[in-house]
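During the no-cost extension, the postdoctoral fellow (Dr. R.K.) reprocessed legacy sequence entries with the updated structure-token encoder. One reprocessed record is reproduced below for audit purposes.
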Amino acid sequence: MSDGGRGGDILRRLSGSRGHMSKARVETAPDRQGQTPTARDGGIGPRPREIEVTGWKGFRQRHWLGLVGVLNFLVFFVVWQLVQTYTPVVDTQWVPVPTAILKDLWENIANGVLIEQARYSFTNMLVAYLLSVLFGVPLGLIMGVSRMSRMLFGPYIWALYAAPTIAIAPVVILIFGIGAPATILVIAMNAFFPLAINTMDGVATVEENLVRAARVFGANRYQVLRRVVVPYTLPWILTGLRIAVTRALLGMVFVEVFFSPQGLGYLIRQASDVSDAATAYSVILIVVISSVLLVQLFRYLEAKFTPWSQEIQI
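Re-encoded structure tokens follow.
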């Protein structure tokens, strides 16, 4: 049978299916009591209604994972405080108690030092992350759908992705000098490669039958990419965005510790040079909290936009 015959046959089947589906919807329409016909009448039985649990029990059911995470951190810091106060395992000059870290954190926020350095760091990180998304997602999609582009760009992508940041950063600094442009480039490279590779791998999972069906209905390459490939690859793209944001944060701290005259990483290096452990730990705490919040934000976006791809819990 020719492609035109197949297309006409599929169209006729879909038309028939729409008719049957419309009829089924009429037969199983809900009555005034909000119930569908029972199985005896050929329907599907009463429609179950969700019971909303309120109060503390409802709050616990909705947020129990977050509560467990908060409790976990609280227990960790309490144990740390007790051990380092009464039976210190390491000299408190190098591992201070949490209360000393929080006190130093508040002082650095009050005098504006931490806010100024954090603004510099996160501005660079945001610019670099947006650049990695702007180039990483389209290149990943192109490499996923085009064998020629994979042959052209693939070796360079994998080679640079395998190279450690500690080897690439000095070369970038030599070319661009110490400053914001070099910092942004190193951070962008850290985030770009996992995003592009994850997007490319996501395109490889698109079912061929969906592409063929779109072709049958007259979709061109752009329409197939926009209406089939991108929606199917969206869970992979969002996962790549989550991985990329953590890689960007790590790249930011690394390049600032070794090559930047400003930023949170610079504060860590400066505090380490004068043996100010409380300041170093307070900046590290800010970086850790930022990482956790960003990861949770992207997990929320994944659950919001791709609920079908979430893990199954038993």
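The radius of gyration is 27 Å. The mean pLDDT is 79. The remaining legacy entries will be reprocessed before the final report is submitted.
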